[in-house]
Amino acid sequence: MSQMDEFLKQVEEVQKKDMKVLVVTGKPGSGKSKILREASETQGWDYIDSRLLITEEFLKLLPSERKAKAPETFREELATHHGPVIMLDRVQTFFIPVFNIDSKSVFDELGRTYTIVLAWPGYLKDGLLCYDKFDGTESIRLSAADYTIWNID
User: Fold this and answer.
1) pLDDT band at 136 (very low <50, low <70, confident <90, very high)
2) CA 18 to chain centre
3) CA-based max dimension of the chain
4) Of 146, 145, 69, which is closest to residue 111 (Cα–Cα)?
5) Measuring CA to CA, how many Å separate 102 from each of 19, 32, 43, 108?
6) How far is CA 40 from the centre of its chain?
Protein backbone atom coordinates (compact mmCIF):
# COMPACT_ATOMS: atom_id res chain seq x y z
CA MET A 1 0.00 0.00 0.00
CA SER A 2 1.41 3.40 -0.96
CA GLN A 3 1.87 6.16 1.56
CA MET A 4 -0.96 8.10 -0.09
CA ASP A 5 -3.28 5.08 0.04
CA GLU A 6 -2.46 4.63 3.72
CA PHE A 7 -3.11 8.33 4.35
CA LEU A 8 -6.46 8.23 2.53
CA LYS A 9 -7.47 5.18 4.58
CA GLN A 10 -6.65 7.09 7.78
CA VAL A 11 -8.80 10.03 6.65
CA GLU A 12 -11.65 7.70 5.79
CA GLU A 13 -11.47 6.12 9.27
CA VAL A 14 -11.33 9.46 11.10
CA GLN A 15 -14.43 10.67 9.22
CA LYS A 16 -16.43 7.97 11.06
CA LYS A 17 -15.52 9.33 14.50
CA ASP A 18 -17.13 11.99 16.66
CA MET A 19 -13.81 13.83 16.96
CA LYS A 20 -12.67 14.10 13.36
CA VAL A 21 -9.06 15.18 13.85
CA LEU A 22 -6.21 13.38 12.13
CA VAL A 23 -2.80 14.58 13.24
CA VAL A 24 0.05 13.82 10.85
CA THR A 25 3.38 13.67 12.66
CA GLY A 26 6.89 13.15 11.40
CA LYS A 27 10.35 14.62 11.49
CA PRO A 28 11.04 17.90 9.68
CA GLY A 29 11.27 17.17 5.96
CA SER A 30 9.39 13.87 6.26
CA GLY A 31 6.69 15.01 3.82
CA LYS A 32 3.79 16.00 6.09
CA SER A 33 2.93 19.16 4.15
CA LYS A 34 3.60 17.45 0.85
CA ILE A 35 1.10 14.67 1.49
CA LEU A 36 -1.52 17.19 2.62
CA ARG A 37 -1.03 19.26 -0.54
CA GLU A 38 -1.09 16.19 -2.81
CA ALA A 39 -4.24 14.79 -1.16
CA SER A 40 -5.84 18.19 -1.44
CA GLU A 41 -5.14 18.30 -5.17
CA THR A 42 -6.18 14.73 -5.96
CA GLN A 43 -9.21 14.57 -3.66
CA GLY A 44 -10.51 18.14 -4.01
CA TRP A 45 -10.01 18.85 -0.33
CA ASP A 46 -9.19 22.27 1.08
CA TYR A 47 -5.55 22.94 1.96
CA ILE A 48 -5.24 25.92 4.28
CA ASP A 49 -2.20 27.63 5.67
CA SER A 50 -3.26 28.36 9.26
CA ARG A 51 -1.79 31.84 9.03
CA LEU A 52 -4.78 32.73 6.83
CA LEU A 53 -7.13 32.18 9.77
CA ILE A 54 -5.51 35.06 11.63
CA THR A 55 -7.69 37.63 9.96
CA GLU A 56 -7.91 41.35 10.53
CA GLU A 57 -11.23 40.72 12.30
CA PHE A 58 -9.54 38.29 14.70
CA LEU A 59 -6.73 40.73 15.39
CA LYS A 60 -9.26 43.44 16.24
CA LEU A 61 -10.40 41.35 19.20
CA LEU A 62 -8.86 42.24 22.53
CA PRO A 63 -6.18 39.69 23.44
CA SER A 64 -8.29 38.72 26.44
CA GLU A 65 -11.19 37.83 24.08
CA ARG A 66 -9.18 35.85 21.57
CA LYS A 67 -8.83 32.69 23.63
CA ALA A 68 -12.59 32.33 24.05
CA LYS A 69 -13.55 33.45 20.56
CA ALA A 70 -10.87 31.75 18.44
CA PRO A 71 -12.62 28.35 18.14
CA GLU A 72 -15.88 29.87 16.91
CA THR A 73 -14.14 32.49 14.75
CA PHE A 74 -11.99 29.90 12.97
CA ARG A 75 -14.95 27.50 12.59
CA GLU A 76 -16.93 30.27 10.92
CA GLU A 77 -13.98 31.15 8.68
CA LEU A 78 -13.69 27.53 7.57
CA ALA A 79 -17.42 27.46 6.77
CA THR A 80 -16.52 29.29 3.54
CA HIS A 81 -14.64 26.17 2.41
CA HIS A 82 -16.67 23.40 0.89
CA GLY A 83 -14.51 20.29 0.81
CA PRO A 84 -15.40 17.37 3.08
CA VAL A 85 -11.88 17.44 4.53
CA ILE A 86 -9.81 20.45 5.55
CA MET A 87 -6.05 20.20 5.62
CA LEU A 88 -4.46 22.63 8.09
CA ASP A 89 -0.77 23.30 7.69
CA ARG A 90 1.50 25.56 9.75
CA VAL A 91 -0.60 25.09 12.86
CA GLN A 92 2.31 26.45 14.89
CA THR A 93 0.80 29.83 14.00
CA PHE A 94 -1.72 29.13 16.77
CA PHE A 95 1.11 28.80 19.29
CA ILE A 96 2.38 32.38 18.90
CA PRO A 97 1.87 33.87 22.37
CA VAL A 98 0.67 37.31 21.23
CA PHE A 99 -2.35 35.71 19.50
CA ASN A 100 -3.51 34.23 22.84
CA ILE A 101 -5.09 31.13 21.25
CA ASP A 102 -5.90 27.92 23.07
CA SER A 103 -4.97 25.63 20.18
CA LYS A 104 -6.47 22.51 21.81
CA SER A 105 -9.90 24.16 22.05
CA VAL A 106 -9.58 25.28 18.41
CA PHE A 107 -8.70 21.78 17.21
CA ASP A 108 -11.52 20.28 19.29
CA GLU A 109 -14.12 22.74 17.97
CA LEU A 110 -13.03 22.24 14.38
CA GLY A 111 -12.90 18.45 14.77
CA ARG A 112 -16.49 18.32 16.01
CA THR A 113 -17.66 20.29 12.96
CA TYR A 114 -15.31 19.26 10.13
CA THR A 115 -12.87 16.51 9.27
CA ILE A 116 -9.56 18.20 10.00
CA VAL A 117 -6.08 16.98 9.11
CA LEU A 118 -3.25 18.75 10.94
CA ALA A 119 0.38 18.73 9.85
CA TRP A 120 1.89 18.67 13.35
CA PRO A 121 5.25 20.49 13.53
CA GLY A 122 6.48 18.42 16.45
CA TYR A 123 6.27 14.90 17.79
CA LEU A 124 4.16 12.54 19.90
CA LYS A 125 5.49 11.47 23.29
CA ASP A 126 3.65 9.76 26.15
CA GLY A 127 0.25 10.58 24.67
CA LEU A 128 1.09 14.25 24.20
CA LEU A 129 1.54 16.22 21.02
CA CYS A 130 4.73 18.17 21.62
CA TYR A 131 6.17 21.20 19.89
CA ASP A 132 9.42 22.81 20.92
CA LYS A 133 10.53 25.94 19.13
CA PHE A 134 14.22 25.84 18.35
CA ASP A 135 15.02 29.01 20.29
CA GLY A 136 13.34 27.64 23.41
CA THR A 137 10.69 30.38 23.54
CA GLU A 138 7.75 28.01 23.10
CA SER A 139 6.98 24.59 24.43
CA ILE A 140 3.54 23.20 23.65
CA ARG A 141 2.08 20.02 25.09
CA LEU A 142 -1.44 18.94 24.09
CA SER A 143 -3.27 15.75 24.93
CA ALA A 144 -3.60 13.54 21.87
CA ALA A 145 -6.18 11.30 23.54
CA ASP A 146 -9.13 12.34 21.36
CA TYR A 147 -7.23 12.50 18.08
CA THR A 148 -6.13 9.97 15.50
CA ILE A 149 -2.37 10.07 14.98
CA TRP A 150 -0.64 9.03 11.79
CA ASN A 151 3.15 9.15 11.69
CA ILE A 152 5.19 9.54 8.53
CA ASP A 153 8.53 7.76 8.83
Assistant:
1) low
2) 16
3) 49
4) 146
5) 17, 23, 30, 10
6) 14
Strand order from edge to edge, sheet including 123-125: 123-125, 128-132, 139-143
DSSP β-bridge partners for residue 124: 129
Q: What is the tens place of the pLDDT at every residue in 69-128?
A: 999 999 999 998 878 899 999 999 999 999 999 999 999 999 999 999 999 999 999 999
Taking the C-alpha atoms of residue 52 and residue 83, their distance in angstroms, rounded to an integer, is 17
Closest CA to 130 of 99, 95, 88, 82: 95
Closest CA to 47 of 126, 119, 142: 119
Interior angle at CA 94, CA 127 and CA 146, nearest 5: 30
Residue-averaged pLDDT of the chain = 93
Sequence length of the chain is 153
Which residues, other chains included, contact 83 with Cβ-Cβ below 8 Å and sequence gap of 6+? 40, 43, 44, 45, 46
67: number of Cβ within 10 Å: 15
